[in-house]
Specification:
Blueprint: E1 4-5, E2 40-44, H1 47-57, E3 65-69, H2 78-82, E4 86-90, H3 100-105, E5 111-117, H4 127-136, E6 139-144, E7 151-152, E8 155-156, E9 163-166, E10 178-182, H5 196-212, H6 217-241, H7 281-289, H8 292-310, E11 316-318, E12 331-336, H9 339-348, E13 353-354, H10 370-378, E14 379-383, H11 390-411
Parallel strand pairs: 3-4, 3-5, 5-6, 6-9
Antiparallel strand pairs: 1-13, 2-10, 7-8, 9-10, 11-12, 12-14
Helix pairs in contact: 8-11, 9-11
Length: 412
């Protein structure tokens, strides 16, 4: 996941994202509203690919403008440029909601679409923005990358936009996956497979991530020899091919990284070669059979546990005063008065964190949106996903508390 702060040589003490377990498939009651319930749905390899497909469906092209929140992931912008359009950034409020007045002030005849994001799994009220877009004949792309499940009152996520996009990798234990949905338009697009190499990598990487964190021990033992042989074979293939100065294999074959999109390997890049490619079969099977009600119930429970554990810690507060009914959180976002000493302590303790918005598109700074710059600097978010065990959650709460107190001591 590109938003997870990590170092390739450091294995995190607990899983930063959901990892596969048998518990993922246990029945858990009635499933809550989900982006996956939309009447028109396509499973693709990532949310950014879905953004590109949504902009294409809206007819965005050269000379057009797309309004994008100033608080964003850099992966949101390349799909706009792929369409030949220009990204213009609008302000957000301190609670991440869209600044409707700033959006209205930026409307001109070139604006073809607006992207609106439900940050961190908290559904926003998009009715006013939907009305503004309708008055001006502008398309609305509802960015649900953080918000695959949930409602705002009676309104399900994904139902306000002309098109909505999701990132199933943030909510399910899968290596790849996003979706493009619509409640308003048909999706007249045919998807193709990503190839045998992609399918194998998606399955193996999902399993290996689970094995690395102690899940599926019986399956791990059964696959130990095949996985060692796979690794040895792959290393031998890479050694035989060699590499050019640009990193591509000397024999002209596809580079190993092209077996999967950058979104699956912690990159922000947008590769048009993955347009109109469907999610892996392994990911689609997990999405079909995993217990969705369990995902929502446990994420809410873990979020509230973190909220309780952090209450009273010095120099910090949750971004949201309370977890709204109908919300399924992606992570637990916290604002720190002096974030850098805390972040350093968290890194030393190998705590997986998200620093969403810490890196914004070039040129987007406090002069464009002071709130976005402040959020990007001060916000550190922590995993609350459904696959955290009781012991892992206890350790996480203690590690965050230690880091917060250490950071406060430095500031003092």
């Amino acid at each position: 996941m590109p938003s997870i702060t990590d170092h390739p040589s450091t294995r995190r003490a607990i899983p930063a994202v959901p990892v596969l377990s048998l518990a993922a498939f246990r029945p858990a009651g009635k499933a809550p509203p989900s982006l996956l319930d939309a009447p028109a749905l396509r499973h693709v390899t990532s949310g950014r690919i879905a953004i590109g497909m949504a902009l294409r469906a809206l007819g965005v092209g050269p000379g057009d403008t797309v309004l994008v929140p100033a608080y964003h992931s850099p992966s949101m912008v390349p799909p706009v440029h792929w369409r030949g359009a220009r990204a213009v950034f609008y302000r957000v409020h301190p609670d991440t909601t869209a600044d409707l007045d700033d959006i209205a002030a930026k409307l001109d005849p070139t604006v073809k679409a607006v992207m609106a994001t439900h940050f961190f799994g908290i559904p926003q009220d998009l009715a006013p923005l939907r009305a503004l877009c309708d008055r001006h004949g502008i398309g609305l792309v509802e960015d649900c990358a953080h918000c695959l499940f949930g409602t705002r009152g009676p309104v399900a996520v994904g139902s306000s936009g002309d098109y909505a996009i999701g990132s199933s990798m943030k909510f399910f234990p899968v290596y790849d996956g996003g979706c493009l949905v619509s409640h308003r338009h048909p999706l007249d697009v045919r998807l193709q497979g990503g190839g045998a190499g992609f399918e194998a990598k998606a399955a193996l990487n999902t399993l290996e991530a689970a094995f690395a964190h102690g899940r599926l021990p019986v399956l791990r033992a059964a696959l130990a020899l095949p996985l060692r042989l796979k690794e040895a074979l792959w290393n031998r293939v890479k050694a035989r091919r060699g590499a050019r100065a640009d990193g591509t294999p000397a024999d002209g074959a596809p580079a190993p990284s092209t077996l999967a999109p950058a979104s699956s390997d912690s990159g922000f890049d947008f590769d048009p070669r993955w347009m109109d490619r469907r999610a892996s079969l392994f990911a689609r099977l997990v999405l079909r059979f995993a217990a969705r009600a369990r995902i929502v119930a446990l994420r809410r429970r873990h979020y509230l546990q973190l909220e309780q554990a952090l209450a009273g810690l010095p120099g910090c507060r949750p971004l949201f005063p309370a977890l709204p009914d109908g919300a399924c959180p992606w992570v637990f976002p916290v604002l720190f008065d002096d974030p850098e000493p805390v972040f350093a302590a968290l890194q030393r303790a190998r705590v997986p964190v998200v620093r969403f918005g810490a890196v914004l598109w070039p040129g987007v700074d406090a002069s464009v949106c002071p709130n976005s710059a402040d959020l990007g600097r001060r916000l550190i978010a922590f995993p609350c996903h459904q696959e955290l065990s009781a012991a892992e959650r206890t350790w996480l709460c203690a590690a965050i508390g230690d880091a917060a107190r250490a950071g406060a001591a430095v500031a003092a």
